[in-house]
Automatic annotation (TrEMBL):
It catalyses: Hydrolysis of terminal non-reducing alpha-L-rhamnose residues in alpha-L-rhamnosides. The lineage of its organism: Bacteria, Pseudomonadati, Bacteroidota, Sphingobacteriia, Sphingobacteriales. Keywords: Hydrolase, Signal. Its EC number is 3.2.1.40. GO terms for biological process: carbohydrate metabolic process. This is alpha-L-rhamnosidase. InterPro entries: 6-hairpin_glycosidase_sf, 6hp_glycosidase-like_sf, Alpha_rhamnosid, Bac_rhamnosid6H, Bac_rhamnosid_C, Bac_rhamnosid_N, Ig-like_fold, Rhamnosid_concanavalin. Pfam families: Bac_rhamnosid, Bac_rhamnosid6H, Bac_rhamnosid_C, Bac_rhamnosid_N, Ig_Rha78A_N. Residues 814-888 form the Alpha-L-rhamnosidase C-terminal domain. Residues 184-352 form the Bacterial alpha-L-rhamnosidase N-terminal domain. Residues 1-22 form the signal peptide. Residues 363-461 form the Alpha-L-rhamnosidase concanavalin-like domain.
Amino acid sequence: MKLKINILLLVLLMISCTAVFAQVSLHNLRCELLQNPQGIDMPNPALSWELSSGAGGARGDYRERNIQQTAYQVLVASAPDLLTEGKADVWNSGKLSSSASIHIIYKGSALKSKNKYYWTVKVWTNKGDSVWSKPASWSMGLLHYKDWEGRWIGFDRFFANDKESEGRLSARYFRKEFTATRPVASATAYIMGMGLYELYIDGKKIGEQVLAPAPTDYTKNIKYNTLDVTTQLKQGKHAIGVILGNGRFFAMRQAKPYKVKTFGFPKLLMQLVIRYTDGSTTVIKTDDSWKGTADGPIMANNEYDGELYDARKEFKGWSEPGYEESKWLKAAYVQEPGGTYEAQLNEPVKVVKTIAPLTIVKRPGGKYILDFGQNFAGWVRFNVKGPRGTVVSLRFAESLQASGELFRTNLRDARATDTYILKGEGMETWAPRFTYQGFRYAELSGHPGTPKKSDFTGCLVFDDMQTTGSFESSNALLNQIFKNAWWGIASNYKGMPVDCPQRNERQPWLGDRTISAYGESFLFDNTALYKKWLGDIRYAQKEDGAIPDVAPAFWRYYSDNVSWPGTLLFVADMLYRQTGDLAVLQKNYPAAKKWLSYMQTRYMNEEGIISKDSYGDWCAPPLTAEAGKGVNADQKHPSALIATAYYYQLIKMMTTYSGLTGNEQDSTLYADLAIKLRKDFNRKFYNDQGYYGGNTLTDNLLPVYFGLVEEVNKTKVAREIARIIEEKNNGHLSTGVIGTNFLMRTLTSIGRADLAYRIATQKTYPSWGYMIENGATAIWELWNGDTAAPKMNSQNHVMMLGDLLIWYYENLAGIKAAAPGFKEIVMRPEMMKGLDSVNATYRSVYGMISSSWSRSSTSFKWEISIPANTTARISIPTKSAEHVTESGRSARKAKELKFIQMEGNRAVFELGSGDYSFTTEL
């Protein structure tokens, strides 16, 4: 048999991921470059590769079974022709006996700013060895502050077009002409455009990124983008053009400086490094030789309120050589924002998907309602033809009133309106640049003709990350919830995770992502985004250890609680669990330790209880939807039980992670504290009748999931949880954000997966199905989002997903990491009445994992794929291991499988990589 090994080369920094595929065999070599990482500013990147074999198919491409890497060798060189064992001038790792294929730390010569590096890998396995893969590459960014040769430019003042009272500025335009004096070998642009930018060279926009760069607290750190512009430059005259929008720099609301953080007027730092074929270099940098104006077509822009664009004011050829710029102003030197300059290693925001409107309905007054059929975040691109000066506006909303008009009360004071003024020169096409909206419906007014559906395109805008998971089952409602979740999660990725995309908030609340980030990771490769966000949280931490509820801290909310700031450690835990990257824990351990000490010092009372909480079980459902009609959900019910239970869980995590991160001296202290907290918690909150606290579902779920319940009381508490759901709630949940985080997994762990399934498939209030029955195409903020007061009833949130998606994958599909990064996998799909099949896939850092099972009253069939260089422990429902066959033969006799034992009515096997097909009698 020919050995084929498919190698995925990844440059995985602390917060980046870029991939190159190479198909390798002993007889041929082929490589397809998918993405070339630009502007890395870490001195020791981590390298990873993915092994697989065979031509394969949709189920995972793992035809060869039980492939295990035994050794590897990495070469890094400064040029492709040096990438051999005898010439590699940057790093030759030598042949190292190791099964490690992810997060291999670079240990070569010091990497230099602006240089490009090439690398390749050879692996040895128990099935044979590969040839060297085709080279991949990465480029270094600017490693030092002094590598930036330009100066910040801008205009630190208001202009006539600015809507100062509205918090909307006109866009700032800057330009610079230059000459490339010799043939160009390479050209790279490094740019920080605050708050958002678009870069043009010779009239053409550079890159597909939008809403760039990723938002940060600009006084702490600023993300720069690195763009390869080699193909745009040749010997001769050229021009650079940059448009600056507000973004989060000039805050959308300025009226509450004690609450809202703003950073000033838009500004720019950029340099273009040109390397000529003769080896010389020229740097074009921002200085006062640039020209600028605020009197352009983007007359106002603001994330909440939209964009006003007057096409009559366009400057034809403004970013091309030879433009008449005499009326433009000399660019002014301005103060730098103050934050550290960092390469943006998380994915750029892009237009990822387009959506056609389903209908256009004419309304009174010459207006039209466009229905895109899906709640999403982005904008509308449209074509229009009409007289010069015609004003066309689009107002956005998530839903309609009974009258058919837009329902916009839940937007609060966000205007959510884009306006375009025609120049009257034939067909005109426009979309905004520096805003986005959350909507399903758009109201069109001022259109000069009869609009057609083909003239309008909805643009879904979010971080350009890979969709890593799929899920389909025999239950249509579960499938629809999954689709709604995908749209909701995607809509709320904007260089940071935000709570909602439509109203005057859109903030990166920590509490919304405590557990949902974990579930999201099965659908999207959100690793880079969440590593970046952990950095935002660390930057927001105060010197005394306090962590805010929102990070970056665009809102100054430091309320001191456990469940919101604890997200720092929960997300770090998720990233380590899902990707195996120990550096995540090492990076965040000090901040977590400092914050936990802060909370203990300030808020742990003599009884060992954390006395301070802010939100309680946020947004728990009213008893009935009718009972919550018109009621404002913005109600806080602090809970010492929640605060203390969370604190205990975080201390347990630190007990483990202190050892993993080289902080062994802390392990005993944390372990002892956990023992004390457990005793104190039970003394304070346990009731001898078999429940905790106020006997709410959440009060009982947390002690069970966190392991706080004494062994002798476990049965009683589990019974009480089931009683609340079955008798008190009639098969429904009654949890808010906190309880829903642990609901489905806790029920499954106590042997009541049937109750979890019953909750997941409810269509009556409160449930995910109730949302869908009432028109939801994403996930609501509130269980009674159709009846609550409009101040808080976003129809596109993620926080109420809780652990549902985790349950989909780990319990329904049976895809769960038994070791960090899925090096070891445990597969144990739950069987329950009413669910006849599940088909799910998840691309882990080692490769694709798939699980597709179906059952009848008498048989169970299961097809699985396990990535190379991993192992799995699988649990098959059956009467006896003797009844299990794999690909038509006895599983117990198959040499690739190792039978372990019977566990109740399940046969447990261990196996290596490959595609497997199991059948058994039930």
